[in-house]
Write the structure tokens for this entry.
Amino acid sequence: MKKYIMLFIAFICFTNINAQTTTEKLKSEKLNETRDIQLYIPEGYSKDKVYPVIVVLDAHYLFESVVSNARYYSYWDEMPECIVVGVNQYKSEDRAKDCAYNDASGLPEKKSAQFFEFIGMELVSYVEKNYNTANFKMIVGHDLTANFANYYLFKEVPLFDAYINLSPYFAPKMEGRIATRLEEFENKKFYYLATSDEDTRKEAKRIRGFNETLKELKNENIFYYYDDFTEANHNSLAVQAIPRAMSKIFTIYRPISVKEYKEKIVTLKTSPYLYLMDKYKTIEDLFGFEKRVTVNDFMAIYSAVRKKENSSEDLELLAKLGKKEYPDTALFHFFMGEYYEKIGKPKKALRMYQNGFSMSPIDFITKDLMLDKADKIKQDFGW
């Protein structure tokens, strides 16, 4: 019986993914042909929001893995909801032509140069024309297509902000060109590289050598990540690397973790509130939209503020932010109540706790807690 239940759940999940994914024909003037593309639009798509775009090369076998991980991480608010668009490259001869390069220069030529323009000027434009897209764009490729994705780094204004390289088959001179280019960027770029123990021997050697070079990058605007999987071959590493890459690239978007709290926030010599503001300003700058501060992050910063000696100003600022983000809850009243207690104004604190009693509870801030805080002030002052 359990077996049938699991099969049913798997079927429901599969059909739900398919319900949000379409396969379309996109006529290309650059290629002078029609290409099959796959398109995933988030279930809750709204014209009032904007969505980062993920371009998937080799979509005929990578697309579903990218979509599944995008859906999973966005469900847990660990990355924004994204539009995923992929180019199917079923035939090996077509794939080779799409990604071909000149053996001497290592640069795209013939159809590959046209395919480069197709991605940048037609595929991405098609998505931007029909949907609300954010500034942030990512590209994913495997061996030949991973190498191809790197050519977008060399545009004066690169089309993509994040590059997922799954066991790339690098063209001649490519590693040096990439390393030099990554040192030049004055805005944030994300670069992920992966190989494995059972990867193609020649390419794995190049990738590991390239990793040694990239580890020495001095540019603080480059966020570089690398994985060398111990139990994977050239093909299977993709399904391990995609979730790892997405998790790393969207670290800033995730709610504050225990590790982030212990290693970055508790040790701060500056204001925890400013840390929170910087985190959300970075999210806005990167992805092009303002993210609502999570309750988790409010409580993490509140906990850090309580550990600081001169924390009254942060409490007041946190309270005002709580009023903006969660106006129907007791968040504002609780934080302001503690603020007034800290600056020696118990009557104002009492009023805050009493007013907060009628508001909706949030996290640990319950009606009973507000009542207890108010009663304690009355007892302390004999009111």
Observations:
- The radius of gyration is 25 Å.
- The domain at 258-381 is CATH 1.25.40.10 (Serine Threonine Protein Phosphatase 5, Tetratricopeptide repeat).
